[in-house]
Amino acid sequence: MKSDSPTPVVASLRVQQLLQKLHALSDVEEKSWSQRFFYLTRLVRFLVFGEIWSAAADEHMRDKFVALDRDKCQFIYLLTRSVGACNVIEAGTSFGLSTIYLALAVGQNVLLQRKIAAGTTSLTGKVTATEKEHAKAVKARLHCKEAGDEVEPWIELREGDLLESLKVDNGVPERIDLLLLDIWTPLALPTLKLVQPMLKCGAVVITDNVGIAKLLYREFLEYIRNPENGFRSLTLPYSGGLELSVYLP
Ligand SMILES: C[S@@+](CC[C@H](N)C(=O)[O-])C[C@H]1O[C@@H](n2cnc3c(N)ncnc32)[C@H](O)[C@@H]1O
Protein backbone atom coordinates (compact mmCIF):
# COMPACT_ATOMS: atom_id res chain seq x y z
CA MET A 1 0.00 0.00 0.00
CA LYS A 2 1.41 3.38 -0.98
CA SER A 3 1.24 6.05 1.69
CA ASP A 4 2.40 9.65 1.98
CA SER A 5 2.39 9.59 5.76
CA PRO A 6 5.72 9.90 7.57
CA THR A 7 7.17 6.75 9.06
CA PRO A 8 5.58 5.79 12.38
CA VAL A 9 8.81 4.09 13.44
CA VAL A 10 10.59 5.62 16.42
CA ALA A 11 14.30 5.20 15.82
CA SER A 12 17.50 7.21 15.66
CA LEU A 13 18.54 8.73 12.35
CA ARG A 14 21.27 6.09 12.11
CA VAL A 15 18.76 3.23 12.35
CA GLN A 16 16.35 4.95 9.95
CA GLN A 17 19.19 5.29 7.44
CA LEU A 18 20.16 1.65 7.87
CA LEU A 19 16.55 0.58 7.27
CA GLN A 20 16.37 2.73 4.15
CA LYS A 21 19.61 1.25 2.85
CA LEU A 22 18.45 -2.34 3.43
CA HIS A 23 15.02 -1.72 1.85
CA ALA A 24 16.70 -0.15 -1.19
CA LEU A 25 18.98 -3.19 -1.64
CA SER A 26 16.03 -5.52 -1.23
CA ASP A 27 13.91 -3.52 -3.74
CA VAL A 28 16.63 -3.74 -6.40
CA GLU A 29 16.88 -7.49 -5.91
CA GLU A 30 13.10 -8.06 -6.05
CA LYS A 31 12.76 -6.02 -9.24
CA SER A 32 15.64 -7.79 -11.00
CA TRP A 33 14.83 -9.94 -14.02
CA SER A 34 16.45 -12.98 -12.45
CA GLN A 35 14.19 -12.75 -9.39
CA ARG A 36 11.08 -12.22 -11.54
CA PHE A 37 12.08 -15.18 -13.66
CA PHE A 38 12.52 -17.26 -10.49
CA TYR A 39 8.98 -16.44 -9.27
CA LEU A 40 7.56 -17.23 -12.73
CA THR A 41 9.40 -20.55 -12.79
CA ARG A 42 8.04 -21.41 -9.33
CA LEU A 43 4.51 -20.69 -10.55
CA VAL A 44 4.92 -22.82 -13.66
CA ARG A 45 6.45 -25.70 -11.68
CA PHE A 46 3.54 -25.55 -9.24
CA LEU A 47 0.91 -25.53 -11.99
CA VAL A 48 2.57 -28.27 -14.07
CA PHE A 49 4.11 -30.56 -11.44
CA GLY A 50 2.31 -29.47 -8.25
CA GLU A 51 5.76 -28.68 -6.84
CA ILE A 52 5.49 -26.42 -3.79
CA TRP A 53 9.17 -25.99 -2.96
CA SER A 54 12.44 -27.65 -3.96
CA ALA A 55 16.12 -27.92 -3.12
CA ALA A 56 16.86 -25.79 -6.20
CA ALA A 57 14.54 -23.07 -4.90
CA ASP A 58 16.32 -23.21 -1.54
CA GLU A 59 19.63 -22.87 -3.33
CA HIS A 60 18.42 -19.86 -5.33
CA MET A 61 17.10 -18.10 -2.21
CA ARG A 62 20.25 -18.75 -0.18
CA ASP A 63 21.66 -15.25 -0.79
CA LYS A 64 18.44 -13.28 -1.33
CA PHE A 65 16.78 -10.76 1.00
CA VAL A 66 13.14 -11.70 0.25
CA ALA A 67 12.35 -9.06 2.84
CA LEU A 68 8.99 -7.62 3.78
CA ASP A 69 8.12 -4.34 2.07
CA ARG A 70 8.50 -1.06 4.00
CA ASP A 71 4.78 -0.56 4.50
CA LYS A 72 4.36 -4.06 5.94
CA CYS A 73 7.36 -3.55 8.23
CA GLN A 74 5.97 -0.23 9.45
CA PHE A 75 2.57 -1.78 10.05
CA ILE A 76 4.12 -4.67 11.97
CA TYR A 77 6.20 -2.25 14.06
CA LEU A 78 3.12 -0.22 14.98
CA LEU A 79 1.04 -3.33 15.68
CA THR A 80 3.79 -4.70 17.94
CA ARG A 81 3.82 -1.40 19.82
CA SER A 82 0.05 -1.21 20.08
CA VAL A 83 -0.36 -4.66 21.62
CA GLY A 84 2.63 -4.03 23.89
CA ALA A 85 4.29 -7.22 22.69
CA CYS A 86 7.44 -8.08 24.62
CA ASN A 87 7.94 -11.67 23.47
CA VAL A 88 7.93 -12.10 19.73
CA ILE A 89 8.87 -14.99 17.48
CA GLU A 90 10.00 -14.32 13.95
CA ALA A 91 9.81 -17.34 11.67
CA GLY A 92 12.19 -16.45 8.85
CA THR A 93 14.79 -13.75 9.50
CA SER A 94 16.90 -13.69 6.36
CA PHE A 95 19.20 -10.63 6.57
CA GLY A 96 17.34 -9.23 9.57
CA LEU A 97 15.36 -6.38 8.01
CA SER A 98 11.97 -7.14 9.58
CA THR A 99 13.82 -8.25 12.72
CA ILE A 100 15.12 -4.71 13.24
CA TYR A 101 11.56 -3.34 13.21
CA LEU A 102 10.38 -6.00 15.65
CA ALA A 103 13.33 -5.40 17.96
CA LEU A 104 12.77 -1.63 17.96
CA ALA A 105 9.15 -2.20 18.99
CA VAL A 106 9.94 -4.84 21.62
CA GLY A 107 12.73 -2.74 23.15
CA GLN A 108 10.46 0.31 23.33
CA ASN A 109 7.62 -1.76 24.83
CA VAL A 110 9.86 -3.25 27.51
CA LEU A 111 11.34 0.13 28.46
CA LEU A 112 7.86 1.67 28.65
CA GLN A 113 6.56 -1.14 30.85
CA ARG A 114 9.60 -0.86 33.12
CA LYS A 115 8.88 2.86 33.47
CA ILE A 116 5.24 2.19 34.31
CA ALA A 117 6.32 -0.41 36.87
CA ALA A 118 8.66 2.18 38.43
CA GLY A 119 11.91 0.85 37.05
CA THR A 120 11.37 -2.87 37.63
CA THR A 121 14.31 -4.13 35.60
CA SER A 122 13.19 -7.76 35.85
CA LEU A 123 10.58 -6.96 33.18
CA THR A 124 12.11 -8.09 29.95
CA GLY A 125 11.40 -9.36 26.44
CA LYS A 126 13.02 -10.35 23.18
CA VAL A 127 12.54 -11.20 19.55
CA THR A 128 13.36 -14.85 19.01
CA ALA A 129 14.53 -14.73 15.40
CA THR A 130 15.17 -17.83 13.28
CA GLU A 131 17.27 -18.50 10.21
CA LYS A 132 18.45 -21.82 8.84
CA GLU A 133 21.11 -20.47 6.45
CA HIS A 134 24.38 -19.77 8.24
CA ALA A 135 25.49 -17.08 5.75
CA LYS A 136 22.18 -15.25 6.15
CA ALA A 137 22.34 -15.45 9.93
CA VAL A 138 25.86 -13.95 9.81
CA LYS A 139 24.56 -11.02 7.73
CA ALA A 140 21.52 -10.58 9.98
CA ARG A 141 23.82 -10.38 13.01
CA LEU A 142 25.95 -7.77 11.26
CA HIS A 143 22.90 -5.65 10.43
CA CYS A 144 21.57 -5.88 13.98
CA LYS A 145 24.98 -4.93 15.34
CA GLU A 146 25.08 -1.99 12.93
CA ALA A 147 21.67 -0.91 14.26
CA GLY A 148 23.19 -0.75 17.72
CA ASP A 149 21.74 -0.51 21.22
CA GLU A 150 18.17 0.30 20.19
CA VAL A 151 17.99 -3.05 18.44
CA GLU A 152 20.72 -5.62 19.07
CA PRO A 153 20.07 -6.35 22.79
CA TRP A 154 16.48 -7.31 22.03
CA ILE A 155 17.25 -10.09 19.55
CA GLU A 156 18.15 -13.71 20.07
CA LEU A 157 18.89 -15.20 16.67
CA ARG A 158 18.60 -18.97 16.51
CA GLU A 159 20.38 -20.60 13.64
CA GLY A 160 19.15 -23.85 12.12
CA ASP A 161 15.78 -25.38 11.33
CA LEU A 162 13.16 -23.50 13.34
CA LEU A 163 11.13 -26.67 13.86
CA GLU A 164 14.00 -27.69 16.17
CA SER A 165 15.26 -24.34 17.43
CA LEU A 166 11.81 -23.14 18.53
CA LYS A 167 11.01 -26.06 20.79
CA VAL A 168 10.03 -24.72 24.19
CA ASP A 169 12.64 -26.80 26.03
CA ASN A 170 15.22 -24.82 24.01
CA GLY A 171 14.47 -21.78 26.20
CA VAL A 172 11.82 -20.11 24.06
CA PRO A 173 9.53 -17.94 26.24
CA GLU A 174 6.39 -19.82 27.21
CA ARG A 175 4.13 -16.82 26.61
CA ILE A 176 4.38 -15.39 23.12
CA ASP A 177 2.62 -12.12 22.27
CA LEU A 178 3.24 -12.02 18.54
CA LEU A 179 4.36 -14.43 15.83
CA LEU A 180 5.53 -13.26 12.42
CA LEU A 181 5.31 -16.02 9.81
CA ASP A 182 7.50 -14.96 6.91
CA ILE A 183 8.73 -18.37 5.92
CA TRP A 184 8.52 -20.76 2.97
CA THR A 185 4.87 -21.79 2.64
CA PRO A 186 5.23 -25.52 3.54
CA LEU A 187 6.60 -24.48 6.93
CA ALA A 188 3.82 -22.07 7.88
CA LEU A 189 1.40 -24.61 9.35
CA PRO A 190 3.99 -26.77 11.18
CA THR A 191 5.48 -23.58 12.67
CA LEU A 192 2.09 -22.29 13.76
CA LYS A 193 1.25 -25.62 15.41
CA LEU A 194 4.61 -25.67 17.18
CA VAL A 195 4.20 -22.14 18.55
CA GLN A 196 0.44 -22.27 19.24
CA PRO A 197 0.75 -23.74 22.76
CA MET A 198 3.00 -20.79 23.69
CA LEU A 199 0.64 -18.09 22.34
CA LYS A 200 -1.05 -16.02 25.01
CA CYS A 201 -4.77 -15.36 24.66
CA GLY A 202 -5.00 -12.35 22.33
CA ALA A 203 -1.66 -13.03 20.68
CA VAL A 204 -1.26 -11.83 17.12
CA VAL A 205 -0.07 -13.93 14.18
CA ILE A 206 0.93 -12.19 10.95
CA THR A 207 1.49 -14.18 7.76
CA ASP A 208 2.85 -12.73 4.54
CA ASN A 209 1.65 -13.28 0.97
CA VAL A 210 -1.45 -15.31 1.76
CA GLY A 211 -3.26 -13.87 -1.27
CA ILE A 212 -0.67 -14.30 -3.96
CA ALA A 213 0.34 -17.73 -2.63
CA LYS A 214 -3.20 -18.78 -1.70
CA LEU A 215 -2.88 -22.22 -3.27
CA LEU A 216 0.40 -22.92 -1.50
CA TYR A 217 -1.09 -21.80 1.81
CA ARG A 218 -4.29 -23.84 1.37
CA GLU A 219 -3.92 -26.08 4.45
CA PHE A 220 -2.54 -23.26 6.57
CA LEU A 221 -5.43 -20.95 5.70
CA GLU A 222 -8.01 -23.67 6.30
CA TYR A 223 -6.53 -24.13 9.76
CA ILE A 224 -6.08 -20.52 10.85
CA ARG A 225 -9.43 -19.39 9.45
CA ASN A 226 -11.34 -22.12 11.27
CA PRO A 227 -12.45 -20.63 14.64
CA GLU A 228 -12.45 -24.15 16.12
CA ASN A 229 -8.65 -23.90 16.08
CA GLY A 230 -8.79 -20.79 18.24
CA PHE A 231 -8.02 -18.04 15.74
CA ARG A 232 -9.99 -15.14 14.28
CA SER A 233 -8.46 -14.00 11.06
CA LEU A 234 -8.71 -11.53 8.22
CA THR A 235 -6.63 -10.59 5.20
CA LEU A 236 -5.29 -7.05 4.99
CA PRO A 237 -4.94 -5.56 1.49
CA TYR A 238 -1.16 -5.22 1.47
CA SER A 239 0.68 -6.38 -1.63
CA GLY A 240 0.28 -10.15 -1.90
CA GLY A 241 -2.13 -10.15 1.08
CA LEU A 242 -1.14 -10.03 4.74
CA GLU A 243 -3.08 -12.29 7.11
CA LEU A 244 -3.77 -10.84 10.55
CA SER A 245 -4.93 -13.46 13.01
CA VAL A 246 -5.68 -13.16 16.72
CA TYR A 247 -5.52 -16.17 19.05
CA LEU A 248 -8.75 -16.24 21.02
CA PRO A 249 -9.12 -19.84 22.14
C1 LIG B 1 10.95 -14.55 3.38
S1 LIG B 1 12.49 -14.79 4.14
C2 LIG B 1 12.40 -13.82 5.61
C3 LIG B 1 12.52 -12.35 5.37
C4 LIG B 1 12.56 -11.49 6.63
N1 LIG B 1 11.42 -11.75 7.48
C5 LIG B 1 12.57 -10.02 6.29
O1 LIG B 1 11.49 -9.45 6.07
O2 LIG B 1 13.66 -9.43 6.24
C6 LIG B 1 12.33 -16.44 4.78
C7 LIG B 1 13.60 -16.95 5.43
O3 LIG B 1 13.30 -18.17 6.09
C8 LIG B 1 14.46 -18.98 6.07
N2 LIG B 1 14.08 -20.37 6.33
C9 LIG B 1 13.57 -21.28 5.45
N3 LIG B 1 13.36 -22.46 6.05
C10 LIG B 1 13.73 -22.32 7.35
C11 LIG B 1 13.74 -23.19 8.47
N4 LIG B 1 13.32 -24.45 8.39
N5 LIG B 1 14.17 -22.69 9.66
C12 LIG B 1 14.60 -21.39 9.76
N6 LIG B 1 14.61 -20.53 8.72
C13 LIG B 1 14.19 -20.98 7.53
C14 LIG B 1 15.01 -18.76 4.67
O4 LIG B 1 16.37 -19.10 4.59
C15 LIG B 1 14.72 -17.29 4.44
O5 LIG B 1 15.86 -16.50 4.71
TrEMBL record:
It holds the Pfam family Methyltransf_24. InterPro entries: SAM-dependent_MTases_sf. This is O-methyltransferase. It comes from Lithohypha guttulata.
